[in-house]
Amino acid sequence: MEFVELNNGVKMPILGYGVFQIADQEECERCVLDAIEVGYRLIDTAQAYGNEEAVGRAIKKCGIPREELFITTKVWISNAGYEKAKQSIEESLERLQLDYLDLLLIHQPFGDYYGTYRAMEELYKEGKLKAIGVSNFYPDRLIDLIKFNEVVPAVNQVETHVFNQQANANEIMKKYGVQIESWGPFAEGKNNLFTDETLKAVGDKYNKSNAQVALRYLIQSGVVVIPKSVHKERMIQNIDVFDFELAKEDMDLIADLDKGESLFFSHYNPQTVEYLTSLAR
């Protein structure tokens, strides 16, 4: 496993396992146990996923020392604000059966996320959070948060894949020392990622799948990735990306796949904002 060093010195695996959309508790617990067994040490969940308890049970059962695991969760919009956020973080720790989190993120830049961040800063200073950051923060809101808070976010988790590579946003993150992390590294299969001819041609050179090439491209670009699969054999394939390196010409070919726009939603779209903020009620 390779690691990135966050702006506070914490080391974070560059590849982890995400549990988005694994709502069934037994399946989620099984998946996390499988992921840890095959070598994943970063596990990414969220309050909104409804599976923190399942992740917690898997952590307890896995037999891996706590200090070898890197556990991330996220504060949802409905828990925004200082008091609600602080309580919800304690509840997340209880559900996960943990004394501390390796990384806590604000899930969406809506509601009183300034109050949320103040609560996170306090718990960070107390040692209950080893690193704090954000998710889905576009450059304008990220800069605003950085300029008016004491602790610079360690991570910004955003939609990042070969079709939306976040080049401009990542330059802003680098400027302020924020690590980019990808959600949706496979674009959830959109744009026929798993059969894309460019990725296939590159993969054939290294005897790797489209999925492995897509992950390797992001990793070589310095992006933390958290692919999800409920199939153990694919978990094994997804983590098997450290035995090859893409040549510059292959990196350039994949760079040309970038469309520079979301395949899912935009926070600049009023309808998207109306929908997401409605979830806070």
UniProtKB/TrEMBL annotation:
Pfam hit, one: Aldo_ket_red
Q: Which UniProt keywords apply?
A: NADP, Oxidoreductase
Q: Name one GO molecular function term.
A: oxidoreductase activity, acting on the CH-OH group of donors, NAD or NADP as acceptor
Q: Where is this site: Lowers pKa of active site Tyr?
A: 74
Q: Which domain of life is it from?
A: Bacteria
Residues that coordinate or bind substrate: 107
Ranges where the NADP-dependent oxidoreductase domain occurs: 16-258
Q: Which residues form the active site?
A: 49 (proton donor)
The record's listing under CDD domains reads: AKR_AKR5F1 (cd19133)
Please give the family membership noted in the entry.
Belongs to the aldo/keto reductase family.
* Protein's recorded name: Glyoxal reductase
Query: What species is this protein from?
Result: Clostridium fungisolvens
Q: What is the lineage of its organism?
A: Bacteria, Bacillati, Bacillota, Clostridia, Eubacteriales
